[in-house]
Every structure is written in C-alpha cells, then in structure tokens.
C-alpha cells in the first residue's frame, strides 16, 4: 500500500524531477542578480567569500520509515485501524522522521565552518543553507540529502506551509517554518 504524503505532493509541484537529475549543480549557478538580492536584514545572498544560498531537500530515515510502514500495514491488515487512520499514522511518522532529519542536518551544517542552516520548513524536509559552493556540493554526500535546489524552492515551500496547503491546518503549517529571515530572490 502506498501512502500519499504532503511532502511528495510539494516536491512534484516544485518540479524536482529536473532538479534531481541535475544533482543540484544548476542551483549553484543562479544568475548574479538573484545571488545578490538583499535580505530583510540588509545582508546579501552572496557574501564577499562567495557564499551561496540553496534549498536542501532531505529524506527521512528510510529504514525507520519502512519499518513503521510495515507496522501500520500489519495493523491495517488485522483490522485494528481503518485505511484513513493508517494513512494518518504514516504521515505522522514521516513528519516526525523529517523533523529528526532536519534537526540532524542543521546540527551538522552549523558545526561546519563554511555551511550554515538559515531556515527550514520541516513539513517538507527543506532547509535553506548558506555556504561556499564546495561545502554545498559536499552536503550531497550525506545520506539524508536528496538534492540541492534553487533558493526560490525554499520560498515556495515556506509560502505553502504558511498558507496551509495540504492536509494540515494553516496554524500547524506556519509553525513548521523556523529561523527564516530571508526574502524571495526574484
């Protein structure tokens, strides 16, 4: 049984198929205008050291998620839960594991001198990071990292979470955005 998820729908809407095939390389080559867009705090998206901002999409721990899916399917097969309850349990498990992945990635990024997590939308498993191009590309070697995407992908995720797009309530989704002080780079 395949469970529908908000994150999957968002990634489809964001058009990550093309971005994933490019492995994030084009995300690091945004045009100069979008890289020097001023943030709300008056800082530039590109520092004098050549720092860039990109969205990093994360995936939950696949073994834990698969284990939980099997447990839920077993409960569904035995009649202990309805199909909608099983779907809800799976989405909750995925959200919890995405939250863990985001926190783990933030800690790793913040412990690295040339990489910094500056915002996150946990609901979608997306973190906005700033760092040198080499550090950003190196982050792809982490098993939890799916792709590097343009900064505007993070802005779309943040906007959707604040608007309450999906199955959660608007207030619930808005609280998923933490530490975000940046503005869109259009």
Q: So what's the overall shape?
A: elongated
Pairing-aware structural class of the strands and helices? alpha+beta
Number of DSSP-assigned strands:
5
Summarize the main sheet.
5 strands, antiparallel
Helical content class: 40-55%
Q: How much beta, percentage-wise? A: 15-25%
SS element count, helices: 8
Cα(first) to Cα(last) distance is 40 Å
Q: What's the Cα radius of gyration?
A: 17 Å
pLDDT averaged over residues: 73
Biased composition (Polar residues): 74-92
Biased composition (Low complexity): 32-48, 59-73, 160-176
InterPro entries: TAT_signal
Region (Disordered): 29-92, 156-186
Annotation keywords:
5-stranded antiparallel β-sheet; 15% strand; disordered C terminus; 8 helices; alpha+beta; 5 strands
């Amino acid at each position: 049984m395949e469970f529908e998820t908000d994150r999957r729908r968002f990634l489809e809407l964001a058009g990550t198929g093309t971005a994933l095939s490019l492995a994030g390389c084009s995300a690091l080559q945004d045009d100069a205008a979008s890289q020097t867009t001023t943030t709300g705090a008056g800082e530039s998206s590109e520092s004098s050291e050549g720092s860039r901002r990109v969205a990093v999409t994360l995936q939950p721990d696949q073994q834990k998620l698969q284990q939980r899916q099997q447990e839920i399917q077993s409960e569904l097969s035995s009649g202990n839960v309805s199909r909608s309850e099983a779907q809800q349990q799976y989405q909750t498990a995925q959200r919890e594991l995405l939250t863990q992945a985001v926190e783990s990635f933030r800690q790793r990024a913040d412990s690295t001198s040339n990489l910094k997590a500056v915002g996150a939308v946990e609901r979608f498993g997306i973190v906005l990071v700033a760092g040198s191009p080499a550090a950003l590309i190196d982050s792809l070697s982490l098993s939890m990292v799916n792709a590097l995407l343009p900064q505007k992908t993070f802005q779309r995720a943040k906007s959707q979470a604040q608007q309450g797009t999906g199955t959660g309530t608007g207030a619930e989704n808005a609280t998923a955005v933490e530490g975000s002080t940046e503005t869109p780079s259009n």
